[in-house]
Amino acid sequence: MSWYRNSVWFVKGLREYTRGGYESASKHFNPADVEVDVAGRSFLVTGANSGIGKATAKEIARRGGTVHLVCRNKERAEVAKEEIVTETGNQNIFLHIVDISNPKEIWKFAEKFRNEHKLNVLINNAGCMVNNRELTEDGLEKNFATNTLGTYIMTTALLPLLEKEADSRVITVSSGGMLVQKLNISDLQSGNGPFDGTMVYAQNKRQQVVLTEQWAKAHRNIHFSVMHPGWADTPAVRSSMPDFYERMKNSLRTDAQGADTVLWLAVSAEATKLPSGLFFQDRQAVPTHLPLAWTHSSPADEEKLMEVLEEFSQKFKSVSLGT
Question: Given 4, 17, 201, 245, which residue is catalytic?
Fold first, then answer.
């Protein structure tokens, strides 16, 4: 019976992830929440050259914010920057070329950034879904390196900057796919058994939810949140999930619809009236587990995840910075 209830709940949830789900939810949005001037505030968006990241960066730029685009591909990033500047008239758009799957690069970037800039809001949007098990130059499974370890290092390395500012925020773009995954700390790099890229991605997204909850407990003066953008028509979906895209392409959200809750969490006063550490969908805090689900993890496992990631982080920091 619990399996049946979960299935019914999940199918209902899937409908909410579509464009129709967004259109229904948006009837209850208050437009004034995001009609704000954020001039003087600094925002960093990873994976900002396309999809939800670019849409978010563009909307922040429209509102006067200083936006730092962190991208892997220099050519595409320069095109995205030019588009944002042209469409918004905001000249305070800065480009940084960083591969989020490379922890040494992240540390080098973060150390330089900390010496040159201030930061009010970090938006962890960069991600990947690699469908075959690939290792990075550091011997890390690529999905884990990008989605989990990259997010962890970028955030922890920039915490000292965020701690200095008033109303500082960290938003991580996760996925509703994490609802089918329980935190698994025994195989963080997916080396055991058959490799399923979709499930590895979902596991990484569960890990991001746990990270957000743990950070919220440890850093009380920063507002942390994690969110599901729904199913949006992005280049990443087209390339990583071609079969899904073909089935769902007429129902997918636009980039801007997928980015709406990211923007709301980044700029609205309403978002920070809610507790830190919550999971959001369409501007609402929603559960991180299905009803009667088996996906709850123990505090010990959650602490172990943080310990393992910190060990990885410090190892690569030492190599990168020669400390």
Answer: 201
